[in-house]
Amino acid sequence: MNQRFDDDMERMLFTPEEIDHTVHRLAGEILTQYLDKPLTIISVLTGSLLFISDLIRLLPIRLHLDFIGTSSYGDNTTSSGTITITRQLRLGVKERHVLVVDDILDTGQTLSQVVDIVRALHPADVKTCVLLDKPSRRTVDIKPDFRGFAIPDLFVVGYGLDYAEQYRNLPYIAVLKESVYRS
Ligand code: 5GP
Ligand code: MG
Question: Does this model's pTM top 0.85?
Fold first, then answer.
């Protein structure tokens, strides 16, 4: 079977250039905030992989990088509401300023639970950064401190975001064709 996936996309939402521009803007905002603070970045796996690797290259400061693994979606496109921790944090964050970075803020369940986990470790401060935000879907009261794009209620893939573990390697962010979900 041909494994090319170009035909699976309904339309492109953000081009690589638009993403790059936004990641630069976010890096500037983050840099201003943490120039004089001991920063620990916590990347929420796996979706934030491309975002975090582009973002940290633009931060010329001493920082620690840790990962937390969460899973809320199965092979479908609606959140189950229950978050499972699939990879634990490894670094201590006591008295450090923590920035939790995720790909997308949807219902808010994932990020708010990760923030609670981090708070329990007694950092100096916890802030959040997401590339994408779907404010209309929120069930938990949480607003990102740093936000790339606000988007309507659409299921998106690419630049780290998957559908059934596929499409993370798309260099842009896209909406999938409905036929892909049905097949
Ligand atoms: P929440 O817990 O806020 O409902 O969902 C957050 C997580 O669900 C994100 O970290 C992401 O992995 C996944 N998610 C939410 N919306 C989308 C989407 O539109 N596309 C993809 N691929 N994943 C999403
Ligand atoms: Mg995620």
Answer: yes
